[in-house]
Amino acid sequence: MVNRCQSCNSNSCVPILDLGMQPLCNKFLRSEDEFVGEQFYPMELTFCRNCKLVQLDSVPPSNVVFGKSFNYLSGATPDRVAYFNRLAGRILRKFNLKDGEFVLDIGSNDGTLLKQFKDYGINSVLGVDPAPEPCRLANQMGVETINSKFETAAADILKRTKNRMKVVMALNVLAHTDTVHEFLDTVTKLVNGNDAVFVSVSHYLPNMIYGREYDTIYHEHARYYSLSSLDYLFKKHGLFIYDAEKISLYGGSILVYARNRPTAKTKRLAMLLKKEDVLQNIKTYRLFSDEVKRSREALRRMLQRLRKDGKVIAGIGAPMKSSTLLNYCGIGSDVLAYITELNQLKIGTYTPGTHIKVVDESRVFRDNPDACLILSWDVAGRIMKSFRKRGYKGSFIVPIPRVKLVK
Ligand SMILES: [Zn+2]
Predict the structure, then answer these.
(1) If you measure from the C-alpha of residue 104 to the centroid of ligand 1, how many angstroms do you get, rounded to a whole number?
(2) Which residues surround ligand 1, an ion (CB under 5 A)?
(3) Whole-number percent of the chain with pLDDT over 70
(4) Residue 179's domain is classified under what CATH number?
(5) Cα 54 to ligand 1 centroid, rounded to whole Å
(6) Is the pLDDT score of 78 beyond 90?
(7) 3-state DSSP call for residue 290?
(8) Mean of pLDDT values over 120-133
(9) Are residues 178 and 101 in the same domain?
(10) Ligand 1 center from residue 102 Cα (angstroms)
(11) What's the CATH code of the domain at 349?
(12) How far is the CA of 47 from the centre of ligand 1 (A)?
């Protein structure tokens, strides 16, 4: 049975791609004892013929997904910090922000983005995030952060920002919340009270479809937005998109600006919307599904051949998306000797579902494995360059958009 659409509530959803039973992609296991009771949930992508939203058919509740074991830290990735710095600078200039005018970041994680605003001299920043550990780190770094689900913190936010909020940001959050309608109602309330702009970043559907980025599908990510499906959803809550631009964050995202009243659309927004016509057609998604299945077979064949020849393969990076790829392709500890990470919270754990040991990145330079499967493929260029510089001699495998061996 296919569930109702998460946006328009119609029963017009049709299945596109079945990724099988998957664990929560951030639930890294601390010891082998935890292998036994591990929970798996179905992961199937559907397309709504009515409002054109691509979404997961069913999603585990937020308190299960974003519990205490949530260990993603923005600050752990140098590329991300640099990107956030440029993004903050751009927002600052676009809205001519001055100190004293508040920037709110919803789902602010460890405060990395807001820290960039502070570095530019905007000290009036506020974060809100439901995960306790990243909040603790943010506050420790001097970025004021409320540890709460966003919707329940609205009154507290209004009190702390004293009607001086200019920008409400939400990076990679709209796809994640399991209460998207309440979430947007709360955004509208905050924006209305301050005449602020709502700036959101979401992973952009065309990138996923054309780039075969099937690994960006995970339970934490319940909806996959195009501008058209986002526009439909926003309007339901009194928010009007007037500008948008494509950015490279998270392997290809859409940065969207919305106000609480209809505002003339920019030329670049109109152009982006026009290019989305093909995304209204179910055929596009059937093609995507076939390509993903072929991509999985190609990767499996390559890895099996290397293992048959006795080669040692390591995985590089254990971002959220690595879990979907490893589980969908059936890559376990018999294929990858280990996976390297920079995030201290992940080192020493085992990957969800596939139980591969996560070790410190320095291990690669001691072992020099025959091949490295780059699971953080969105920064593959930087990784390959830096690994070579640090003396790694083996080959690289880049799994997406096309399976590629780099000697
Ligand atoms: Zn719909």
Answers:
(1) 29
(2) 5, 7-8, 48, 50-51, 53
(3) 97
(4) 3.40.50.150
(5) 8
(6) no
(7) helix
(8) 94
(9) yes
(10) 34
(11) 3.40.50.720
(12) 8
